Amino acid sequence: MSALIAEDEIIHEAELVRLEDTAALDYVRQSLDRLPTRLVRPACRQDGRMAGYALLGPKAEPSRSSGPFRRRVFWLLPYDRDTNPDGLYATGAPAKAVDPRTLAPGSKGRKTERSEGGPPSSAMRELDVRLPQ
């Protein structure tokens, strides 16, 4: 859901809590989770580990349709590049992945050459498409 997260869905974020040093991570996955509160640490995903989460400000309201608050959670799976550098994501990255250096409260983050795992493909070079460093 990372690229699908709209800025207006995260405008009430007050702070991002980092549970680990993300400076060494090429990417983190992000998703909007339904959580019962604005501030409490979310439960960890079963198969992966949580790298961080968003805290919401006092003006945030629960979803009218589902009840809970929608908050961003940042996480990694056991087969992601940080633990398996030669694996599935040796190059490229999951659709939900963004470079953690591009994250800020209320800003959805973006993919970079670093998060995508290396230099641009020949097709990107041909089209002169460049991702941020």
UniProtKB/TrEMBL annotation:
**Cross-referenced Pfam families, in alphabetical order?**
DUF6009 (PF19472)
Location of the region described as Disordered in the Swiss-Prot/TrEMBL record: 81-133
Q: What is this protein called?
A: Transcription factor
Species of origin reads: Streptomyces acidicola
Query: Which lineage is the organism of this entry classified under, starting from the top rank?
Result: Bacteria, Bacillati, Actinomycetota, Actinomycetes, Kitasatosporales
